[in-house]
């Protein structure tokens, strides 16, 4: 079982009165065992809806999926045994303590009292929750509560963990802390499927990601390959204005160059792999005896990718 | 089956622990009936018309208990609204626990708390002069439990169906107040004009209140008692099936 999630034409249409919302429109995706896989997209893109279908919470309107080795439609109970799910809203009972919440969750998964208590203590240590675990959850800070939610999702050691917007609304420090926890889970063998509308989170945390907009996956790949396939890298060579034409002549017939643009006193060269090409360019200019004053290599961001695919900036639509 | 029982016990204990930790609602639910008891009891003996002298409390108390069973249970669904908001319900729905156990764990806690409230109220009424038939009193507890179960189940179902505080409270007000007024809860419908009496015949609570009065008076074999039990057993089963179904379907 090397595929953790595999979907075919997964769709969800909500009907309320006369209005229909096509929240998810034919999502095809495959998540390998051992990946951190991300759904990146603006609010309303259909990320949560897709995740809730995969977690057996919503019946799909169409399409099929296998999750953690079981057919979603035919064996939802087996799917549930093998997945953990942490909703955006969390899900811990606010008037009870963290430890009580964890023990109940263990028992809901069939552990006896002693086993559940032991597991709760393990998770308390692993997620460094000792200082607050015996207080009621409603007294927790945002970051503490999110760690608590993560522990609830992990109580039964699921092979696959769903995290819906795990760091939304957290301060930067809590976010980085949570990223570390997610990486630790992954290192321990858990496959993680998460949604986010943060570009840096998708970039830093996910091995592969799908960019989602209006219920569809518009692009998929590793963060690096996504960026590469879109814009390529931009090398900016600063040089005195009268040498620009000569510089362009040197580069024009090189196979790695896609486009060249003139700036006031700089050449902008669009290439595939900037870091590999840059030494070549330096050598060419050296042998042509053309002095270069400054060099800059710019990578496209995931926002450039989103922009290219949808015509909008994710920063603005999120 | 034994799995469902185990899970039901687990959820019952959990819900009970939550109630005991913060028993504001059960205490709150007792205040109004106790006030009614204290304020109305002295008036009852002077009523005369329709009520044999000295038996005012025997007539008044069953209605009061039915009213409490109805009102307190009607708002049980608030917990579901909160659990939809904070994700608790959704989190539980991805665990293997049975939906039946989830619902029973709530309802049984509610019923137990309610019966405890009834016991307090009856103790108060006994002090003030209630003189019930002992067997009838036991039977009355059983009927009150059933009523509480029916309304509690409907309230959970309503919360799942509307998912919204305003709609929830409006719907309850729409149903509860007329049902209460047209059931002769506080005073017998024999005091009301004929047209209201006819309408109230169609109200299950009228029969519950009447049956309660027969039980307290020691006439537990009356057909009205059988009718009330039959009605509320059927209503409970229908309501339970409905809510279990909606628990299976979408959440938030
Ligand atoms: N229960 C529902 N009923 C009707 N529409 C819904 C429901 N849940 C989500 N939607 C709609 O589906 C679309 C996708 O929502 P969602 O999956 O929550 O997006 P995301 O998680 O990417 O922000 C939105 O337009 C949202 O309003
Ligand atoms: Mg969402």
What secondary-structure arrangement, pairings included, does this model have?
The complex is a heterodimer of chains A (318) and B (252).
Chain A: E1 3-16, E2 19-32, E3 36-40, H1 47-54, E4 62-67, E5 70-71, H2 76-82, E6 83-86, H3 98-108, H4 113-126, H5 142-154, E7 160-164, H6 172-187, E8 191-196, H7 199-205, E9 208-213, E10 216-221, H8 223-230, E11 233-238, H9 244-252, E12 257-262, E13 266-271, H10 274-287, E14 294-298, H11 302-310, H12 314-317
Parallel strand pairs in A: 3-8, 3-9, 6-7, 7-8
Antiparallel strand pairs in A: 1-2, 1-4, 4-5, 9-10, 11-13, 11-14, 12-13
Helix pairs in contact in A: 3-4, 5-6, 8-11
Chain B: H1 2-21, H2 24-44, H3 56-74, H4 78-85, H5 88-93, H6 99-128, H7 134-162, H8 165-181, H9 194-201, H10 204-217, H11 223-248
Helix pairs in contact in B: 1-6, 2-3, 2-6, 3-6, 3-7, 3-10, 4-7, 6-7, 7-8, 7-10, 7-11, 10-11
Bound molecules: adenosine-5'-diphosphate and magnesium ion (MG).
The site of adenosine-5'-diphosphate has 12 residues of chain A, from strand 1, strand 2 and helix 1.
Provide a descriptive summary of the structure in words.
- The complex is a heterodimer of chains A (318) and B (252).
- In chain A, helix 3 packs across helix 4 (113-126) and helix 5 packs parallel to helix 6 (172-187).
- In chain A, the strands form 3 sheets. Chain A has a 6-stranded mixed sheet, sandwiched between helices. In chain A, strands 2-1-4-5 form a 4-stranded antiparallel sheet, with helices on one face.
- Chain A has 318 residues and is α/β, with parallel strands linked by helices.
- Chain A has helices at 47-54, 76-82, 98-108, 113-126, 142-154, 172-187, 199-205, 223-230, 244-252, 274-287, 302-310, 314-317; strands spanning 3-16, 19-32, 36-40, 62-67, 70-71, 83-86, 160-164, 191-196, 208-213, 216-221, 233-238, 257-262, 266-271, 294-298.
- Chain A has 12 helices and 14 strands.
- In chain A, a hairpin with a 2-residue loop joins strand 9 (208-213) and strand 10.
- With 252 residues, chain B is an all-alpha fold.
- Chain B has one domain (2-250).
- In chain B, helix 6 (99-128) packs across helix 7.
- The model of chain B has no long low-confidence stretch (mean pLDDT 89).
- The chains are: A alpha/beta (318), B mainly alpha (252).
- Chains A and B meet through helix 2, strand 6 and helix 3 of A and helix 1 and helix 5 of B.
- The structure holds adenosine-5'-diphosphate and magnesium ion.
- Residues 47-48, 88, 164-165 of chain A line the site of magnesium ion.
